[in-house]
Amino acid sequence: MSILEPRTRELDTGFDDPCELLLSCHDKVRRFTQLALRIVDHIKTHGADEQASEAASRILRYFRMAAPLHHEDEEKDIFPALAALTEEQLSAEQAQALAEHMDILLQEHEILEKEWHVIEKWLDGLEKYQLLAVPQQLPAFVDRYDAHMHREQSEVFPHIALLSDEQRHEICLQMALRRGLTPS
Ligand SMILES: [Fe+2]
Ligand SMILES: [Fe+2]
User: Fold this and answer.
1) Is a pLDDT exceeding 90 seen at residue 3?
2) Distance from Cα 44 to the centre of ligand 1, integer Å
3) Structural domain of residue 81, as residue ranges?
4) 107: exposed, middle or buried (C-beta count within 10 Å: 0-12, 13-18, 19+)?
5) What percent of the chain has pLDDT over 70?
6) pLDDT per residue over 98-141, tens digit each?
7) 39: closest CA among 50, 25, 28?
8) Considering the domain boundaries, does residue 65 fall inside one?
9) 108: CA distance to ligand 1 center in Å?
10) CATH code of the domain containing 132
């Protein structure tokens, strides 16, 4: 049985709501981190075969190109816009809690990016049919990403609804431009 899933288009959501794209990115992160775990099982019996190479190639492509853009969306557009919410929009306690969550998330971006570079070397080998030792960091990376996205979705993204239509539109525009797209 193939460990690969059918391909999907890289960008399959519109740009009218930043949350749609953010959640779509999270779905892809989950899909590709789970694929990385499936590779570990696969190579135990099949070695570094064509399927492992193709799977590694898909994960590499996502985490080298799309994942950094997603972190940039959050760091340059989403978090700053939410940090600028006014007292009328958010109580002092809510604003404090939100700021603390975003601080943690920013620190986690740095940790995740460092861990990714270790995993990237392993996948880069697999893509070339080389069987390197599975990085010890892989399970922690997958768990950390899951917890990170859960924190974003439960504690941070719901506040995007407090932004004005104009602010959400501007964020969508910036996210589209970051991807070299012209939004409609
Ligand atoms: Fe994030
Ligand atoms: Fe995220």
Assistant:
1) no
2) 32
3) 18-178
4) exposed
5) 92
6) 999 999 999 999 999 999 999 999 999 999 999 999 999 999 99
7) 50
8) yes
9) 8
10) 1.20.120.520
